[in-house]
Amino acid sequence: MGGEAVAPRGRAATAVRALLRSPRALSGLALIAGLFVLAYAGPYVTGWSYTDIDYTALRGAPSAAHWMGTSRIGQDVFAQTVRGLQKSLLIGALVALVSTALGAAFGACAGYFGGWVDRALMFVVDLMLVIPGFLLLVLLAPRLRGLGWPAFAGLLAALGWMITARAVRIMTLSLRERPFVTAAHHMGVGPFRIIVRHIVPHLASFLITDATVAVAAAVISETGLSYFGFGVQPPDVSLGTLIASGTDVALTCPWMFFFPAGLLLVFVLAVHLVGDALRDVLDLGSDRAEALR
Question: Which fold would CATH assign to domain 7-46+68-292?
Answer without folding.
Answer: MetI-like fold (1.10.3720)
